Amino acid sequence: MQQSPAQIRHAYTRMRLIREFEERLHVENPKGEIAGFTHLYAGQEAIAVGICENLDERDYIISTHRGHGHCLARGCDPRDMMHEIYGRADGLCKGRGGSMHIADLSKGMLGANGIVGGGQPIALGAAIACALRGDGSVSVSFTGDGASNQGTVFEAMNMAVVLKAPKVFVFEDNGYSEHTGASYGIGGDLKTRTEGFGIPVWEADGFDYFAVYEAARDAIAEARAGRGPVAVLATATRYFGHFEGDPQNYRAKDEVKRFREEKDCLMQMRRRVVEAGIFSESDLDAIDAAVIEQIDAAVASAREGPRPGPEIMLQDVYLDY
Q1: What is the CATH number of the domain that holds 101?
Q2: Distance CA 192, CA 186 (A)
Q3: β pairing state of 201-205 and 180-181
Q4: pLDDT tens, 254-303?
Q5: What is the DSSP letter of 306?
Q6: 0.85 cut: is pTM over it?
Q7: Dist. CA 17–CA 77, nearest whole Å
Q8: In a domain, 202, yes or no
């Protein structure tokens, strides 16, 4: 556990923020106030936070359709995110992005993406820019096990190797490509497939924040040193359906219940830091309570937030140089 108490507190708070944000959306979504599809990240918090705790303001990330966790791990404001999901004019993208297309360039968050695997070429472009600047910055792309089968992913991997771009491929294997099990939908395995392009792979238990953090630390150091692209493969599970409303008939009885009770990343982190004497249960309970209060305020604010007018459709379409 090679982190200071302040670092651990920060990481735990970010993980709890993601969990409560997603759990609350699971409650709010059926009320009909949120437009469009919503894909929740709960269960995978240790991956997003374990990766992003190794990044600094120079770096970029790009997300997937399941992007709330990545945004929050990167430091995007939860209030502004909630306003965006509710389609409000003062949301991060002025209400035009919604759940699947949140971006915050001020945080180096280049966007969530509704196209499966669609973020990979964008992240590669950012990695090339990092290389040209020569400042040691990196570009991180998050990809699910299902998206790993997309041609855009293979093309990005190949070009990243050819150009020795400082790109970090993060593969989040949550077991399902929408409704299809990874064991059925992926030929071979993600590790050997990635290594076939000449990209070194660090593996980590996606339920263990410290394991992800350490794997990402070592992998990102290689990319920063100019040795080309790297990959982190982390395995976890999502606690909710592929999308809100998914009946999840493809999952085994009590599958999610078992993961929550036996492997949950927040439960594991709490146990380890309490046993190590770094924090007490009451310390962590106080963080939890503060986060829940923050989420309550974000939802209340989003419900009352201003709706965008029709003129917003013609704004920010082109960038003037």
Answers
A1: 3.40.50.970
A2: 12
A3: unpaired
A4: 999 999 999 999 999 999 999 999 999 999 999 999 999 999 999 999 99
A5: P
A6: yes
A7: 11
A8: yes
